[in-house]
Amino acid sequence: MPNLQKGENAPLPTTTPIVRIQIGRGSIVGDIDISAYLLGETGKVSGDPDMVFYGQRQSGDGAVRLTSSNDSETVFSLNLASAAARVQRIAFAATLPGEGVARPTFANAASVAFEIEGADPIRFPVPTEGAIETSMILGEIYRRNGVWKVRAVGQGFSGGLKPLAESFGVVVAEDPAPTPAPPPPPPPSAVSLSKVTLTKAQPKIDLTKKGDSFGEIRINLNWSAAPVKTGFFGRPRSVDLDLGCLYELRDGHRGGIQALGDSFGAFNFEPYIELSGDDRSGAVAEGEWLRINGARWGEIRRLLIYAFIYEGAPNWAATDGRITLYTPGAAPVEVPLEEGDSRKNMCAVALIENVDGQMRVSREVRYFNGHAEMDRSFHWGLRWVAGAKD
């Protein structure tokens, strides 16, 4: 039986898996709520039929059924062939009973496990020592390039069911509060809402939160589909330019997000960064996108945004590439990929840093021979191995 570690993934051996969630109660008293959420590309449910729990034991499309539940184990049966086309991920979560300071956390559980049943079961023993969460996403089954996979998650919230459900787009009803006094009008924005282009002369900009959060931060890579000739007699060949980033979290954890190696990240849990799509030709009008969870900006220390040519001879001038960063209520920030080095296939485009809770964006536009050379230059310290796209 292969055991997954937190953050690891594995291919599903079948499209009709049985999911078992096992919780050794330890000192936990009361009902533990186990639920499943069918999520679209944005990480949200489309409505009530996308939730499965004790009061609604089957999803609207019939892909997920809660078949049995007792004090120590809950079982779901899945038929992934029935999943609606919009469903990209199915998250399985647990919420502990109680309210306020008396509520237990997952550190009170004797054991927690997320398991895929089969001839060769896949098991994730969820680490809970020192955990402060009262609701937790244990694992997820997700669709990648038409193939279903399973990922060990083991992350959640300390506020119970409400923040968990809201992270999936579920509206949680609350008692009406007294009507507050109208807020004072916001001060004029310090940033013009026309596009800002970072150049050698103006290489940096500081962005300030509008309220408590940056909201959803989006980073776009767009480039030209014009083919590049590969030699005097060579046929023109399209360049495959990819978007990616290196990240460092506040706790020191470091990693990378890119299509190469199937490292697409996650929006609602660590590292709070997700790559959407992989444009292999430059023909997709919107290009490629990174989504950053601005509500979790405090968990992120720095990001290095890069572009690299996966296929085709390096010809940066022909790509006409540019990175654009969008934050709600602020001007788009654009960094053109200028002065390309035709001998090198990697460009570190921009460094984004958390400076006292605000966001500093710095133009880099430095070219390298691959990931490892770029990593060393920015002192990230990751280990790189050769990879290929599916």
Automatic annotation (TrEMBL):
<dbReference type="Pfam" id="PF02342">
    <property type="entry name" value="TerD"/>
</dbReference>
<dbReference type="InterPro" id="IPR003325">
    <property type="entry name" value="TerD"/>
</dbReference>
<dbReference type="InterPro" id="IPR017115">
    <property type="entry name" value="Tellurite_resistance_TerA"/>
</dbReference>
<dbReference type="GO" id="GO:0046690">
    <property type="term" value="P:response to tellurium ion"/>
</dbReference>
<feature type="domain" description="TerD">
    <location>
        <begin position="3"/>
        <end position="168"/>
    </location>
</feature>
<dbReference type="InterPro" id="IPR051324">
    <property type="entry name" value="Stress/Tellurium_Resist"/>
</dbReference>
<protein>
    <submittedName>
        <fullName>Tellurium resistance protein TerA</fullName>
    </submittedName>
</protein>
<keyword id="KW-0778">Tellurium resistance</keyword>
